[in-house]
Amino acid sequence: MLDLKMPVWGTWLMALGFIAFIALLVLYIRRHKGMSRSLFASPYTLWMIIFTVLPIILIAYYAFTDANGKFTFDNFVTFWDSNHTMNKQLIEMGFDPAEMGGGRGTVNLDTLVYSLWMAFLCTLICLLLGYPAAAIMADRQFKLGATLVVLFIIPMWMNFILRTIAWMTLLEDNGLINKLLIWLGFERVQLMYNSNAVQLGMVYNFLPFMVFPIYNALAKQDVKLFEASMDLGANRWLTFWKVTFPLSLPGVVSGITMVFMPAVTTFFIPRMLGGGNTEMFGDLIERTFLTANNWNLGSALSLIMMVLILLSLGLLRKVDPDGEGGSML
Length: 329
Hints:
The protein has helices at 8-32, 42-63, 74-80, 84-92, 107-138, 145-157, 160-171, 176-183, 195-219, 223-231, 236-265, 268-273, 281-291, 295-319. By secondary structure, the chain is mainly alpha-helical. The chain has two domains: 8-92, no CATH class; 109-319, MetI-like (MetI-like fold, Orthogonal Bundle), CATH 1.10.3720.10. The longest helix has 32 residues, at 107-138.
């Protein structure tokens, strides 16, 4: 079993970081002869160092080392070639991997591609459903807009796991949907344990994260811009395409980011609604950590996912530098 005890350098790094934090805090107070408002953010800074920065450092440490703590790139090679470890063992035993059928394995890479595709479809569906919903709720002439906002928020008060399990009672073979089909005279259909069920669960759970940033961007728009466009001779469609939609792009990009990355890394929805027939990258990471007990490879896979998240955040920062579309409400 892998020894997950923190390395000595990690302990020293944490201790030195804490000492440096205290020293900088004392120096700041002495230099400014008192405490300023910005100093009250210091506990949050310390919290981020201990529970965000240091864990990322440890993940990077395990990703670039083997079970014995030696530096290696094998974990990333294994991501590219899932048979790398097996082929390496065959070579050490004197066998030719090609003769033993041990060619390059693509399980890990295929799982990432499948996850990206499922996340892309989920994001696209959420955008197609979420933008009209956000536009309706942001319409000042629509009196039930505030009510719809509340209806979107209420399901989010329920636990994510419970919301997913609730779909099982609807989609299973003896669920409400199949009972309704049988009552109407149709045959029973297989709704669970396939990619469609996983996609449905993802869209249901992540749709609010697309709706609210777009709603926030649309609600902030000045109605006078719309009226000015109409006065200048543009119809509703041209006004939407030239005025409304470009101004709502920060919310759209924020919504895409908030839906796409959780969709790529989700693991509970495929497990419950996919029944083990579908595996996404989040499932692969969890299985690598908990079932295979390979924390080094699991850390490498997690680091790859972190890079994708950083690229996504970089895109958001480039399109929406002021964070105008980034809030949920």
